[in-house]
Design a protein that fits this description.
InterPro entries: DUF3444. The chain is mainly β. The protein is built from 2 helices and 18 strands.
């Protein structure tokens, strides 16, 4: 059976809603999200990076037991799910065994989505069950993430200094998921400092002539402007984008610029001239 994007997203949404509940009604079945249809970009739909081979970071030899990875498993094609490598089979075929993280209830101080189905890519996460999802290819994996263990079974995944993240443009708690995930607009930022109360960021701008090479934006009146985002607004942070700091490429003319992994970027940004 062929599935389009809308049907795949609807089916996945039903499964996730059921998994939110602690009790499953008698006669009901729990759906395996790993077996549900997903709508994802295939590699030839996304422009290859011009300088750094991000795919090498997802090669088989890069996977180790205990690692936490950002994963693509939803209809918006962005790496906003997380899982941990619990087991790796190598004898007959390559198989990764991965339980998924689920977002913990948000602290009262957090400005929350009104739409409770909105994905959370930054905050506190935990394993809801011990179920292991099997992967025989690495296409679903984006990059290794730093998950800080807190109290038993709870991990913190948060923006860290030096990382590049996509943040929601014109963010507000009223953003709705619906079926318009790919219509959201984003800004690309570099994290310059993280404190107990604020995350300091600098906005990045696309370098003319490239599709995924960015540099810190220079304001007309103030260079290297730092924007403070209150920790209570951490849902503004959509997801981390893997990046590579350029040095000698193009004869050194791009030194200090960052090439971003196209597979971690919102599609519309790759179509920007």
């Amino acid at each position: 059976m062929d599935y389009n994007k809308e049907e795949a997203t609807k089916a996945r949404g039903i499964a996730e809603e059921m998994m939110e509940k602690d009790d499953v009604p008698e006669g009901s079945f729990e759906l395996d999200l790993a077996s549900l249809p997903t709508y994802q970009l295939v590699p030839n739909q996304v422009r290859e990076p011009e300088f750094y081979k991000f795919a090498d970071e997802r090669s088989l030899k890069k996977f180790q037991i205990g690692q936490f990875w950002a994963i693509y498993i939803d209809g918006d094609t962005l790496p906003r799910y997380y899982g941990q490598i619990k087991k790796i089979d190598l004898l007959h075929e390559f198989v990764l065994h991965v339980p998924w993280f689920y977002a913990c209830p948000l602290p009262k101080s957090t400005i929350r989505w009104h739409d409770k189905t909105m994905l959370i890519g930054c905050g506190l996460f935990k394993f809801r069950n011990s179920k292991l999802n099997k992967y025989t290819v690495t296409n679903n994996f984006s990059h290794v993430v730093a998950a800080k263990p807190l109290k038993k079974g709870v991990f913190k995944i948060f923006a860290r200094t030096g990382e590049v993240w996509a943040v929601y443009k014109n963010w507000s708690a009223q953003l709705m998921k619906g079926n318009n995930l790919e219509n959201f607009e984003y800004k690309i930022v570099e994290i310059v400092n993280v404190s107990d109360n604020y995350v300091d960021v600098k906005f990045l701008a696309l370098v003319k002539g490239f599709k995924s090479v960015y540099i810190i934006r220079v304001e007309e009146e103030e260079t290297d402007k730092v924007v403070k985002i209150c920790v209570s607004e951490h849902l503004r942070f959509s997801h981390q984008i893997p990046d590579f700091r350029l040095t000698k490429e193009k004869g050194g003319s791009l030194r200090g610029f960052s090439e971003l992994d196209p597979l971690g970027m919102p599609m519309y940004l790759l179509c920007t001239d």
